[in-house]
TrEMBL record:
Keywords: Signal. It comes from Pseudomonas urmiensis. The keyword Ligase does not apply. This is Spore coat U domain-containing protein. Residues 19-156, 182-318 form the Spore coat protein U/FanG domain. Residues 1-22 form the signal peptide. It comes from the Bacteria.
Length: 323
């Protein structure tokens, strides 16, 4: 009888838990643009913008493991104090670390993205897809500025030092330490705008056309700082032979017109029939943004027409401003 003896060889290899590496790097930024905003909104309403990439990008699988020894510093500086336009006007704005006003970033001061859960909330160290740190921007109201492109280039100095690998027992297996400087462009385009006050014209009542008096009134216009413009009045809805006309419900007409200032020159909408900002009766010249320019006019019913049947007569005239 043959006797066979078998023995089993058990091989075991004990490996530590695989570390989760989360390496960061300094990368080119993505610009931030507020878009095109008219001057009135720039002055009166907060505008927002953001950059999806402020120059720091990380890849890894750590989440909520940052300690007091871990830091992601950003120091933002610039040779300017805000968005600067073609005439030197400045639109101030504030930089934020997230999409709230809870974490403003002061220029020239080191800001740490690690405290407050900002990095964790961004998921920057979660997963294997590269993710970038965004920045958020909000304008400060009150800027009375000329139209044009407003820009600022920010210098962002990044410096990071954090535990990049966790082993058994939450032991740090290594630290990712690095730094880099990137530039980020912020822009906003201001468009021309006007605030216009146009009172209605009322000739009241009269039994015959000769009984209607002259109406003397003004149009107030406040246009973008530094803007040169012209103001036109169209011919209304019932013009005939170069005269504006009011119309009754029975399709009868009452001819009238609107004249520049206190004179007899008809105010129209084409070429020289318009009025330039330099021709304003009060504050002539370019727009000031906040101060009104006043354009006086007088309106009269033509007395060389037959008196139409008694009724209520109306017309609608459009005012337009061209830059």
């Amino acid at each position: 009888m043959n006797t066979f003896s078998r023995s089993a060889l058990l091989c075991a290899l004990l490996l530590p838990a695989a570390p989760a590496w989360a390496l960061c790097s300094s990368v080119a930024t993505a610009p931030a643009a507020f878009g095109t905003i008219n001057s009135t909104l720039v002055r009166s309403t907060v505008q927002t913008a953001s950059s999806t990439n402020a120059g720091l990008q990380c890849t890894g699988s750590l989440l909520s493991l940052l300690t007091s020894n871990d830091h992601f510093y950003a120091t933002i500086t610039s040779s300017r104090s805000g968005l600067v336009g073609p005439t030197g006007d400045v639109i101030p704005y504030t930089i934020y670390a997230n999409n709230t006003t809870s974490f403003p970033i002061a220029r020239g001061t080191q800001f740490d993205f690690a405290p407050g859960g900002i990095i964790d909330a961004l998921g920057l160290l979660s997963g294997t897809t590269p993710k970038s740190v965004p920045l958020y921007f909000r304008t400060v109201v009150g800027a009375n500025v000329a139209a044009g492109l407003y820009q600022e280039t920010l210098n962002i100095a990044w410096s990071w030092n954090y535990c990049s690998g966790i082993g058994i027992g939450a032991i740090c297996l290594g630290r990712d330490i690095g730094s880099g400087v990137q530039t980020l462009t912020v822009s906003l385009t201001v468009s021309n705008d006007c605030q216009i006050t146009t009172p209605n014209i009322s000739f009241a009542s009269a039994p015959v056309v000769a009984g209607f008096g002259t109406v003397n009134q003004s149009i107030n216009i406040a246009c973008t700082k530094g803007s040169n413009y012209t103001v036109g009045l169209d011919d209304g809805q019932n013009v005939l032979n170069g005269r504006r006309r009011m119309k009754s419900a029975a399709n009868n007409y009452l001819a009238y017109d609107i004249f520049k200032s206190a004179g007899s020159v008809r105010w129209g909408m084409l070429s020289s029939a318009r009025r330039a900002s330099s021709d304003a009766d009060v504050n002539p010249g370019a727009g000031t943004g906040i101060g009104s320019q006043v354009f006086n006019y007088n309106a009269k019913v033509y007395t060389d027409q037959a008196t139409p049947p008694a009724a209520s007569y109306t017309d609608s005239v459009i005012l337009d401003v061209q830059f």
